[in-house]
Amino acid sequence: MRYVCSVCGYVYDPEVGDPDGGIEPGTPFEDIPEDWVCPVCGAAKEDFEPEA
């Protein structure tokens, strides 16, 4: 499942991950460290919501 940043609209896709942020492709959103932040705007992980 993809998750969307409620601040800027960035979409976290587990198939892509966030290589620049140290998140390997294939990493489910639930397995991302709690201190991870949006690579676009810096919002906290808690500011993401499941994509509708």
The residue-averaged pLDDT reads 98
Shape: globular
Our measurement of the CA-to-CA distance between the termini, rounded to an integer number of angstroms, reads 10 Å
What fraction, in percent, of the residue positions are helical? under 10%
How are the strands of the largest sheet arranged?
A: 2-1-3
Rounded to the nearest angstrom, the radius of gyration is: 10 Å
Beta content: 15-25%
Q: What would you call the structural class? A: mainly beta
Can you count the helices? 0
Order of helices and strands: EEE
Strands, count: 3
Question: How many strands, what sense, and barrel or not for the largest sheet?
Answer: 3 strands, antiparallel
Unreliable spans are none
What labels describe this entry?
globular, 52 residues, 15% strand, mainly beta, three-stranded antiparallel β-sheet, 0% helix
Q: Would you write up a description of this structure?
A:
There is one protein chain. This protein is mostly beta strands and 52 residues long. Helix content is 0%, strand content 15%. Strands 2-1-3 form a three-stranded antiparallel beta sheet, with no helix packed on it. The chain is globular.
In short:
The chain has 52 residues and is an all-beta fold.
